[in-house]
Amino acid sequence: MIFADFQGYVRGAALAAIASFGLVATEPAWARQPTESFSELVDKLMPTVVNITTTQNVPQQGPRLRDMPQLPPGSPFEELFKDFFDKRGGEEQQKRRGTSLGSGFVIDGEGYIVTNNHVIQGAEDITVIFRDDTQLKAKLIGSDSRIDLALLKVEPPNKKPLPAVKWGDSDKSRVGDWVIAIGNPFGMGHSVTAGIISARGRSLNDSLDDYLQTDAAINKGNSGGPLFNTDGEVIGVNTAIYSPSGTNAGLAFSIPSNLVKQVADQLREFGKVKRGWIGVSYQSVTDDIADSFGLDRARGVLVANVTADGPASKAGLKRNDIIISFGGQEVLDLRRFPKVVANARVGSTVDVVVWRGAKEVPLKLRVGEQEEPEKQNVSAQGGAKKPAEPDQPVTSTIEQLGLTLQKVTDQLRERYGLSDQVKGVVITKVAPNSPAAEKQLQAGDVILEVDQKPVTTPQEVIDLVTKQQQQKKRSVLLFVERQGDPRFAALRLQK
């Protein structure tokens, strides 16, 4: 104990000496200390957050004959119970009231409230409960299951504007920033938790997902509640948790406020969300594909097909184009591109830049409306099959790619289920551990183009591959189709 006291004395004296010479290290500007309390901020925010209860009729089975008590044969109660169960079993299913709990927040003093779609889905009655226990019936203005948002409307008491939140810019939120979540966990009423943003750009189930991840405690009932920054601005809507037990495990996900505001505005104006659509199918640009097209690096998305008379077709986009810019935003990869297109305003004209013929080509495109998620075009499979003819197929092998090829015949159409419209060269075998196997090509795939040139015979494929080798190219670009699904594959050329 004495030794410890002496150590403390020496350490204190040393620090005092260092301080007297101005040598104490100052805290870096970026090393901000957490605030002592969020209490004043929370007091201002609480009135903007609401609890939401919903009720709906849930089917309930009536008594069934198999549930009838087992009685001795001839018992005087046997007929009585049988008549009762027969009567009740023939009635329509009974109904009971189901209740769910969630959270939401006021975005406009006129009474507009944002919550999650899954909080109110299937509800017949929606009640909004404020912090002062005021209860108001809510009307559903519109909802969107894909983003999982809904917009409600209540009539403010005495027509007095309700306290509303302020929107923050979720794009400016950084990993490590403090955040505050307010909601209705487990139906216990207004509760506050705090944490930090632990990640950005999380995708869970949908190509349009773009969640903020936070370690603030989020539990069942918090769904639809706001995530605030330390300026008291909404930067997200708490929507999902990742947990084996169904309770907080430090992994919660919030829809970014910039997307929420955009969806809420459309729900208020149209009652639904209008998403952008351009009418193309596309795929990632790999290093091999970038090299094949003479692009400086792997970026953008490669157009595999263009819908006839769609927005892209009318704008002049073609198959083999690489979209490198859309609406003034650089297209970095396939993961982000669907969000960029979907968020484009329907009917607006955007600038598009494509890589074509080893140079940038600017285009103007008028954005259409997406009725359902874009799907790659599927060739028609209808029509009667022609009787197979006893052709003598010519088989060729390209050992450096690991491919065995045949010209399309009626026999091959029958074997692989190819449509009558398909023309090209059929892959009948893929060698294990070959460049073709690496790109997951398989028997039944049809090669339509090699190095952006159409092919109809195995010899044409061989000639074009040989030409690529003579030019010392590292890979050869194939355009293939599998059951109507077109895509590009860049196969490395073995030395």
Number of helices: 11
Poorly predicted spans: 1-25, 90-94, 373-392
Q: What general form does the structure show?
A: elongated
CATH architecture label name of the largest domain: Beta Barrel
Query: Kindly, what is the distance between the CA atoms of the first and last residues, rounded to a whole number of angstroms?
Result: 75 Å
Instruction: State Rg.
Output: 32 Å
As laid out across the biggest beta sheet, the strand order is 5-4-1-2-3-7-6
- Say what the CATH topology of the largest domain is: Thrombin, subunit H
CATH superfamily label of the largest domain: Trypsin-like serine proteases
Biggest sheet record = 7 strands, antiparallel
CATH class of the largest domain, please? Answer: Mainly Beta
Beta-strand segment tally: 29
Strand composition percent: 25-35%
| Mean pLDDT reading | 81
Which percent bin holds the helix content?
A: 10-25%
General description of the model:
With 495 residues, the protein is α+β, with helices and mostly antiparallel strands. The protein has 4 domains: 108 residues, Thrombin, subunit H (Beta Barrel), CATH 2.40.10; 105 residues, Trypsin-like serine proteases (Thrombin, subunit H); 95 residues, PDZ domain (Pdz3 Domain), CATH 2.30.42; 98 residues, Roll (Pdz3 Domain). It has 11 helices and 29 strands. The chain has a 7-stranded antiparallel beta sheet.
